[in-house]
Amino acid sequence: MKDATTSTFNKYYPNEPAEPRVVTDTIPGPKTQSHLESLSRVFDTRPSYFVADYDHSLGNYIADADGNTYLDLYAQISSIALGYNNPKLIEVIGSKEMKNALVNRPAMGNFPPMELAHHSNVLLKFAPKGQTRVWNALSGADAIELAMKAAFMYFMRIKRGESNYFTPDELSSVMDNKPPGSPDLAVLSFKRAFHGRLFASGSATCSKPIHKLDLPAFRWPHAEFPFYEYPLDDPENKTKNQKEDDRCLKIVEELINSWDIPIAAILIEPIQSEGGDNHASPYFLQGLRDITLKNGIVYIIDEVQTGVGATGKFWCHEYANIDPPVDLVTFSKKFQSAGYFFHDERFIPNKPYRQFNTWCGDPARMLIAGTIGEEIMKHNLLLQVNETGDYMFKELEMLQSKYPKFFGRLRGKNRGTFIAWDLPTSELRDELLAKLRINGCNVGGCSDKSVRLRPSLTFEIKHVKIFIRILDKCVGELYN
Known about the structure:
Blueprint (H helix, E strand, L loop, with lengths): L29 H10 L12 E7 L2 E4 L4 E4 L2 H4 L8 H7 L2 H8 L12 H9 L8 E4 L3 H20 L8 H6 L12 E5 L8 H6 L17 E2 L11 H24 L4 E6 L2 E2 L5 E2 L2 H14 L2 E5 L25 E4 L7 E4 L20 H16 L2 H22 L5 E4 L7 E4 L3 H13 L2 E2 L1 E3 L3 E4 L7 H19 L1
Parallel strand pairs: 3-15, 5-6, 5-7, 7-10, 10-11
Antiparallel strand pairs: 1-2, 2-3, 4-12, 8-9, 11-12, 13-14, 14-17, 16-17
Helix pairs in contact: 3-11, 5-11, 9-10, 12-14, 13-14
EC number: 2.6.1.19
Cofactor: pyridoxal 5'-phosphate
GO cellular component, one term: mitochondrion
């Protein structure tokens, strides 16, 4: 393993803080509270942890308005790949291509910039295995909605026998939001899933009621997502977990055969993130592929949070070696861009303007995404993530032995730094997160009582040592 003194990343962040620093007695501190009071007049500040000072955030440390500096294991909800104020990304900001992308914001569907083919080809260098094309979007939820649109149009294209023509009945009925022009079709997702807060993505989301209350929803099914016993390599747990996979796969097939609306697509996260860091086994993900092929259903993998290296592979579902490759893979967050990868050209609609909006993505974000991908490969950050994650998991296992009830279902072994565990109650989880913050570590939760770790890809063993020391202190205070 690389020692911190020989790390590649010293040249990224030679002035990164050596330790967290908290100078206020409370978080949020007085200056942050003042900012929040002012901001609340024009913005909903109720979810805010603190007001960040991004000018003074660096590498794996985020600063707030009060001068507190936190070791960041949340990274903008898993969205920072290379740390704060990364010099390579700052360099890209000054390029001619970025100037054109930001100042002239192309409506790419009608007026694509000359650089668009290059940006797309750079992104495709990092596409999941088997994927050869990319469609760009504006956010993770937008990527999901566009992928669903592509799936529905593909499904109907196959159903009508590849015809490029629409019947008069289809053309007239669609204007009244009625079949056959607006067909009754469904996407099957999973309980505890999170795919976004828009309308179609909201109908597929099933993690917390607050995400979708008062919104009209499609009548779409939610299957059971496997809930495993840990550790996974325990022989007894292996048997139980295999049965759990088979139980859930059976439910998927039963829903496909019994739902009163034809199911056009299955949508799944390889690790349900907002829903509690629930992992899907390679066996389960391949089983879904077999089911989709058997039933002529589109298979969509949502890699918005799991993608771009955090699990130790560029794309988490690649651990499953799904054969043949899935149909669509959505991305966002750590790529700082959004969209979906695919390989079958029939997912390109048969007529122009069917998959379309003013911007069709964002070339500025595509430029950033390509640079992030190139830096990951140039500096072998996947190896970095795996080494750091393996070390961190072993340290957490030792804390689990010390405080067993505070580290339930510790999960994420051999999945990079994509690690989580459960506390006995949501109140204890929230208290732990607050203690971590006042001691200089910014950490997030998920589901009701889980802690999830989402550091940047530049997080090193030296950072792990700081975090484990602080975590041990905070859990010890709760334990006693």
